[in-house]
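Sorry to interrupt, but I need a hand with the structure work. Go ahead and set the record down below:
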Amino acid sequence: MLDFQPSTIIFTIINLLVLYFFFRKFLFGRVNAVLEQREQLIRKEIAEAEENNAKARQLQVEYEQKLAGAREEAAQLVAGAKSRADAAYAARMAEAEAEAKQYAAEAESRLAAERGEMLRSARAEVAKLAVMAAAEVAGRRLDTDDDRAMAEEFLAKVGEAK
């Protein structure tokens, strides 16, 4: 069984006290110094982290401001490009319209010229027929330029009367 002897208890207590003072003198001081260094290092790292966090927040604010400025500038560029495109579109439409009017005017002048040529040709043909009819009626041949001129003059008067 367990046997308790007072001398063993006293030696154990003395050993524990010697060991405690020995540890206190040589070990606890060094451990406490290491713990204090570690605590200072942690505090320093926390302060640096907070400082970096503040800088990051400041950079984020600057970035957001720059991003808003870039968005605004992009919107202005898009609006400018749109207005230039609208102006170019209007200029091209005006140019196309002027070109279409020019083509229409040219076509109309060609038609008028062709119509005039056709009328002259038709009058000459009718004058020829009139001279032939008059020659048949008169019973003689009328081929002179004077006779044709007289018939064309007659047709011109009849054409003006209409």
